[in-house]
Structure formats: structure tokens, C-alpha cells
Amino acid sequence: MFSAASLLQVAHARNVLTAAGIESELRNQYLAGALGDLPMLEPGRSLWSKTRSNRPALRALEEAGKAPSGAPWTCGECGEQLEPQFTTCWRCGAAFQSA
Predict the structure, then answer these.
(1) Which of 27, 65, 81, 97 is 20 to 30 A from 50, alpha carbon to alpha carbon?
(2) Which long-range contacts (CB under 8 A, 24 or more apart) does 79-87 make?
């Protein structure tokens, strides 16, 4: 269903599916030790859905890849300007509070 050369990308995709309640299996994650004996990208690290249809999983990955919407916000504790994708202030750790 999803594959990438980077284990980080595949692991992130698996975390997205786990957060959406979709079971998946990460395959070929330990192939780095076989480098030189296998073709460069084959078989790559891959993510397999454990459901009959891949549609919900693909939809969850598509949604996760969309740019965040909303307006930047200002932390009420320290005054730091933050982008909408952040729900916690990176400077002081205060949580976002809607007006």
C-alpha cells in the first residue's frame, strides 16, 4: 500500500494509520544490514494494511499530508507567534487556548 526508501517515512505513515485506528504492518524494516547484497531500492521498506480495503488507510495518509488550515496564533503565556499546526507553544510549552 505504501513504500519508501526511508524507514522514517514508512514509520511515520504507520503512526498516522495507528492514530486513525487502522491496523498495519511494517515490512522489510531491517534490510539495512543486507545492503550490497540486494538491489538499492528493492525490496524497499513497505507498509501493508491489515484491512480488506486500502481506501480508509490511503484516505488517512492523504489527510495527514495536507497543509494545516487556520490562522497563526499567539501564545497567551509568553507571546510567541506560532503557526496553526502547533497545538503547544514550542518556547514555553503552554497549550493552545482558543479565544
Answers:
(1) 65
(2) none
In tens digits, what is the pLDDT along the chain, a chain of 99 residues? Answer: 787 778 888 899 999 999 999 999 888 777 655 555 555 555 577 888 887 788 998 999 999 888 778 889 999 999 999 998 888 999 999 998 875
Of 55, 62, 54, the C-alpha closest to 16 is 62
Beta bridge partners of 16: none
- Separation of alpha carbons 11 and 24, rounded Å: 11
Grid coordinates in use for 68? 494545516
Q: In sequence order, what are the beta bridge partners of 3?
A: 46
- By the 8 A CB rule, do 54 and 6 touch? no
| Grid cell digits, residue 48 | 501493508
Question: Are 49 and 3 in contact, with CB atoms under 8 Å apart?
Answer: no
State the maximum Cα–Cα separation within the chain, in Å, rounded to a whole number: 58
